[in-house]
Design brief:
The structure holds two protein chains of two kinds.
Chain A lengths: L20 H6 L4 H7 L3 H11 L11 H6 L10 E6 L9 H7 L1 H15 L3 E6 L4 H16 L15 E6 L9 H8 L23 E5 H13 L1 H5 L9 E8 L5 E6 L4 H7 L9 E5 L8 E2 L9 H6 L8 E6 L4 H15 L5 H18 L5 H14 L6 H26 L7 H4 L13
Parallel strand pairs in A: 1-2, 1-4, 2-3, 5-9
Antiparallel strand pairs in A: 5-6, 7-8, 7-9
Chain B lengths: L10 H15 L10 H12 L4 H11 L3 H8 L13 E6 L2 H19 L5 E2 L5 E6 L11 E3 L2 E3 L4 H12 L16 H8 L19 H9 L7 H14 L35
Parallel strand pairs in B: 1-3
Antiparallel strand pairs in B: 1-4, 2-3, 4-5
Helix pairs in contact in B: 1-2, 2-3, 2-7, 3-4, 5-6
The chains are: A alpha/beta, B alpha+beta.
């Protein structure tokens, strides 16, 4: 095996009471904070920039550069907002991280806040994970009690408050400007960019919005240096990341590895596709990234290679489906999701996802036509690049990629009067279908 | 906006809500409207849904119109527009969970409970929902009860859970506190008021640890860095109970940043290394 796992972010998850300050400190936690507080903030930023760390929330924007976009201090507030709204279908890395090791995120948030000159940071957590909220609230309280938050952080003279804020169920709030609107007590609808949040973000002030895993990577960069970070991964996709394997895999779960590992390597580690079956299609980075098939098993999972192969690394949410899975059913359900979660602000996304949903339901019911397949592509053409934010673009990914690789399967739904697959064969357990209609 | 004639709550309930609302707004200095989502969770913790009274209360507290508050409340799926059951049972029927068996689980519960999506049993115990991806795909198919994780469900296990909930028995999630709380109790936590249960339950479930366990078994680890020594020292410091903010051997970086640049070659190809 060429590549091995590199647990850094996941390294404390098996410790006893890993979520407590005591356990985190015993494992060396908050030593990076002391290192950072002894540095000039500009040097912390430089270390992150030099590490090549890129945003782990999907877009892969260079983190240090994002911080560097903040205008020079003008005496007014600047904010860090941690995007903990993890909701992209297939993505399941930040939630276990915050449940097992909330102090890692807190430490990363303090270091980042120090680097960018922020005195009030926010963690925007999706509301549907109440135990994670408990753990974050407890971690912030513990950190404050220990003098790691509040006035005079760890005796450094630097002041910081962190507020953990629970959302209330809306995928769109993972989009950074929609998140900011939501955090301001409004409907979670995206804002027109520019201005970008770095210039006018939360409350119209300079703001850095970063994903949980990005911020959680900061303490190790500060502790071990940029070269250490760059010793993992590839030249342009440096470091490690959590790869989340789900679906028809023998041992689904979280596998932390250098960027550039392949699905073939990860599947070897996870015991392969479930016994007696073979890989049919998979998402490299969540449902908004174009599907891959078995021909992409050896694509290095880094930003450049996945992009060159026609998809996106996204959140490394590897949803894996074997040959028992109907691709039309899979994409139909994703389109239900996008139609449900479209915020309604822009017409291409709101109308496009709605009409695609109707077409998919027709196809599944055996009432689709050849013309419907052309209409799907036409609708995608009208959404992609014309939607207000990335939600609409993302909705087109599974549609166009599945039509590219599995057009014959769509046509079988048209000519065969419905779905040729048995859903029971794809499930984890045996059952007798009740014949209810899913729409 | 103070000339409002209608005061939705009274007595002890009003006092309680006023105190809680003040605590929420204190989290957002100079920006009270940021407290609206927590306030709506708070209202649900009292009334079991976002009631018209609750909307009026939020509006008065924030100096908004009830239309402005309603516009926000109706945007988010966790805010309920009619009285919710004691337990929201949400079955993930997004693609991956649906295919792994979520559809079958939803059908089983719908038939067993005699209700459909977003409907509540006549005894007020269970509100059944199809939910979207809840970030636990490695445990598919997933069910959430009042937003606690019930991993790797089957139709039988899910039916057993709802039966026990309806019978008033304590039911433990797979990753979460020892016992599922009520919808109102959980809503209060989501408003930002801890219930003291953070220390219950596991750190991580088996799937979360799949990679880490393999790494431990094979002896795989990330390359050691400057921080590895710092970690050891910090562990010693932690053991001796050194107070935060005190000087210690870890106050000085063991190695300053090495000063690479964006163009620094990594000199390594991990994919070619054993």
């Amino acid at each position: 095996m060429a590549t091995t796992l590199t647990p850094v972010l996941t390294d404390r998850w098996d410790a006893s009471r890993s979520w407590t300050l005591d356990a985190y400190r015993k494992a060396g936690g908050y030593s990076a904070l002391r290192t950072a507080l002894a540095m000039d903030p500009a040097d912390v930023l430089a270390a992150v920039k030099d590490s090549g760390l890129r945003g782990r929330g999907g877009a892969g924007f260079p983190t240090g550069m994002k911080w560097g976009f903040l205008p020079p201090p003008d005496g007014g507030p600047r904010y860090l907002v941690v995007n903990a709204d993890e909701s992209e279908p297939g993505t399941c890395k930040d939630i276990p991280l915050m449940m097992a090791d909330p102090h890692l995120l807190i430490e990363g948030a303090i270091i980042t806040s120090y680097a960018i000159g922020c005195h009030h940071a926010f963690i925007y957590l999706r509301g549907e994970v109440v135990h994670v909220y408990r753990r974050l609230l407890a971690a912030v309280a513990e950190a404050r009690e220990a003098g790691l938050l509040g006035p005079d952080v760890a005796g450094s003279g630097y002041d910081l408050e962190i507020t953990v804020h629970a959302g209330a169920g809306a995928y769109i709030c993972g989009e950074e400007t929609a998140l900011l609107d939501s955090l301001e007590g409004r409907r979670g609808q995206p804002r027109l960019k520019p201005p970008f949040p770095a210039v006018a973000g939360l409350y119209g002030r300079p703001t850095v919005v970063n994903n949980v895993e990005t911020i959680a990577s900061v303490p190790s960069v500060v502790a071990n240096g940029a070269d250490w970070f760059r010793s993992m991964g590839t030249e342009r996709s440096s470091g490690f990341g959590i790869f989340s394997l789900s679906g028809h895999v023998t041992r689904p779960g979280q596998y932390e590895a250098p960027l550039g590992i392949t699905l073939r390597e990860l599947l070897d580690m996870a015991g392969g596709i479930r016994e007696g079956h073979e890989l049919k299609f998979w998402t490299p980075g969540g449902s908004s990234t174009p599907l891959f098939t078995a021909e992409h098993l050896d694509v290095p999972l880094d930003y450049e290679s996945v992009g060159a192969a026609g998809s996106m690394l996204g959140t490394r949410a590897l949803q894996i489906f074997d040959e028992t899975t109907c691709v039309v059913r899979a994409v139909s359900r994703w389109i239900d999701f996008y139609a449900h979660e479209s915020c309604g602000k822009c017409t291409p996304c709101r109308e496009g996802t709605y009409w695609m949903k109707l077409i998919y339901h027709r196809l599944e019911a055996g009432e689709g036509t050849q013309e419907d397949l052309a209409t799907l592509l036409d609708v995608c053409d009208n959404i992609l690049g014309r939607a207000f934010c990335a939600l609409g673009d993302g909705a087109t990914s599974p549609v166009t990629s599945s039509l590219k690789y599995f057009r014959d399967e769509y046509e079988a739904h048209v000519t065969g009067g419905g779905c040729p697959f048995d859903p029971v064969a794809a499930a984890r357990f045996a059952y007798t279908p009740k014949g209810l209609v899913h729409a | 906006m103070t000339a409002r004639t209608y005061e939705p709550y009274e007595g002890a309930k009003l006092e309680r809500l006023e105190a809680d609302a003040a605590a929420i707004l204190a989290r957002y200095p100079e920006h009270p409207r940021s407290g609206l989502l927590p306030l709506l969770h708070l209202v649900q913790s009292e009334d079991g849904f976002v009631s018209p009274d609750g909307i009026a209360f939020c509006a008065r507290v924030l100096g908004l119109t009830t239309a402005e508050v309603s516009a926000v409340a109706t945007f988010y799926t966790q805010f309920k527009r009619k009285p919710n059951g004691t337990y929201t049972v949400g079955v993930c029927t997004n693609t991956l969970c649906a295919i792994m068996g979520g559809d079958a689980i939803f059908d089983e519960l719908a038939e067993h409970l005699g209700i459909g999506h977003d409907e509540t049993t006549p005894d007020g115990a269970i509100t059944l929902e199809r939910i979207e991806c809840n970030a636990a795909c490695d445990y598919a198919p997933v069910m959430m009860v009042n937003w606690e994780f019930f991993d790797e469900q089957t139709p039988d296990s899910a039916r057993d859970v709802v039966d026990r909930l309806r019978a008033g028995e304590p039911v433990a999630p797979t990753r979460g506190p020892a016992k599922v709380c009520t919808f109102k109790q959980v809503s209060r936590v989501l408003a930002g008021f801890p219930d003291g249960l953070a220390d219950e339950g596991v750190s991580a479930g088996p799937a979360s640890l799949a990679g880490l366990r393999l790494a431990r078994e094979k002896g795989w680890r990330a390359p050691s860095g400057a921080g590895a020594e710092g970690a050891t020292e910090a562990a010693v410091a932690g053991d001796t109970g050194l107070a935060a903010g005190r000087d210690s051997s870890v106050d000085t970086p063991t190695q300053p940043p090495s000063g690479g640049t964006a163009d620094t070659k990594t000199r390594r190809k991990p994919s070619e290394e054993a």
